[in-house]
Amino acid sequence: AASAYPAPGGQAAAPARPAPWEDMPPAATMGSAEAAVLEAPPRAQTTPQHAAPQSRQQPAAAEDDLPPWVTEFSDDTAVAAPSPAYSAHPYAPQAATAQPDDPHAIAMPARAAAAPAKAPYAYAITPVPELNWDGNWPAVAAALPLRGTAQQLAMQAELVRCSLDGNAAVFALRVPIETWRTPGNVEKLTAALTERFGRAVRVDTELGAVWYTASAEAQAYREACQRAAEETVANDPFVNSLIREFDAWVVPGTIVPPQTNAAAA
Asked: Most buried pick, 16, 89, 181, 251, via CB within 10 A?
């Protein structure tokens, strides 16, 4: 029913909307008072008990979209899981358990067995009168105009013997690493020796431990120069006076011998 009171301000109030129970079907308004019982419209059923699981499932769904490296290290107890996408490269160095016939295994260059600290024989220089040469192989090897692995072949090889085969001089060399005595390096060394001696030269190589090489001689010379330089500083009167009067010291590693051509070889 409409309100019986006038609207404030003397203006007629807008007709009020019928109440829900007044808009009922005729069957509900006829009969006894029991038939006019108002039934509330059905409410949408809510399940509060499932709200928490849904909220927990949303982060789980969001985690499914994250990269694997985010979810694997999300806490301190996570452990990285192996992924096939980040497996070792097929051409990476194989482990020691790799099969010998593995096509992807990397073959390391052959090396001679570890040489003893002291040579089992004394160093002897044998002159070669036919070549007008004193037989000092380290000096000849250090002076040859070679570069790269060909130079390493000359510097790291030890002369076993030098002989004549007809008109050709034969240099038998022992090399500690297989890759240094490749045909290309041997050919370059042969050309350099031919130019050095002015006659045909043949170079024969073998794999083995070495001691008396141009590289070893140069290293021994550098060590001797370093010891001499340190002794010179230690016996210098001015340096000793600074140590006594001012409690000074020589910074380790700052004593460097003068550079010479022999030391640089």
From this structure: 181
pLDDT digits (tens, 9 = 90+) for 124-143: 889 999 999 999 999 999 99
> Which pLDDT tens digit goes with each residue over 61-113?
445 555 655 545 445 554 555 444 444 444 444 544 445 555 555 555 666 56
- What is the biggest distance separating any 2 CA atoms in the chain, rounded to whole angstroms? 146
pTM equals 0.53
- Torsion-angle region of residue 261: left (phi > 0), alpha (psi -120 to 50) or beta? alpha
Element (H, E) at 165: strand 158-165
State the Cα–Cα distance between residues 115 and 227, nearest whole angstrom: 25
Nearest C-alpha neighbor of 123 from the set 220, 37, 235:
220
> Is 262 within 8 Å of 221 (Cβ atoms)?
yes
Helix (H), strand (E) at residue 187? helix 183-197
Neighbours of 186 (CB within 10 A): 19
Ordered DSSP codes for 80-133: PPP-GGGPPPTTSPPPTTS-TT-TTPPPPPPBPPPPPSS-SS------BGGGTB
Q: How far apart are CA 28 and CA 37, in angstroms?
A: 8
From the number of C-beta atoms within 10 Å of its C-beta (0-12, 13-18, 19+), residue 75 rates as exposed
Domains of the chain: 129-212 (3.30.300.150), 221-264 (no CATH)
Q: How many CA atoms lie within 13 A of 246 on its CB side?
A: 8
CA 1 from centroid of its chain's CA atoms: 90
Three-state DSSP at 256 gives: coil
